[in-house]
Amino acid sequence: MPTRLLLLADTHLPKRARDLPAEVWHAVDDADVVVHAGDWVDVALLDELEARSARLVACWGNNDHGALRERLPEVGRIEVEGLALGVVHETGQAKGREDRMSSAYANLDVLVFGHSHIPWDTTTTTGLRLLNPGSPTDRRRQPHCTYMTATADDGELRDVTLHRLPPRA
Q1: Which domains does the chain have, with CATH numbers?
Q2: Looking at residues 100-127, what average pLDDT do you find?
Q3: Calculated CA dihedral for residues 158, 159, 162, 166, nearest 10 degrees
Q4: What is the b/e burial string over 133-161, where b = at least 16 CB atoms within 10 angstroms of the residue's CB?
């Protein structure tokens, strides 16, 4: 049965925004699995996503401390519809990322990451799919705040979509 995934990273609440955009909360409600690649900043969002998500897989980021590091792993892992999916905050510089991650995560099919706030979607020569959803709250030098959705089904990742959020008022 297809599983709907929501991919988030670098939410930085409440420093970069007071809350997630309404569109993202709707996506949380629609998702079977929410994946968050770290830099939460405040444990309140973790509490809310745990309560509201059908299933949450997540990790801590470099800006996460205290209870966030106590409650979350550095690398989160899940098996979903025959896919081995991992989530980590940092993967280092873009140059050489595919080779480094293929080596470090040889047992995964999909690795979701964050840190840069730059959306990323590539597949390595070993078949590892690397996805960075960007940030739904802090676009930095990007033209839009973003997040991703995808579908896991029968061992395949399908319908990977980067969603651009409208500018905040």
Answers
A1: 3-165 (3.60.21.10)
A2: 97
A3: -150
A4: bbbbbbbeeeeebbbbbbbbbeeebeebe
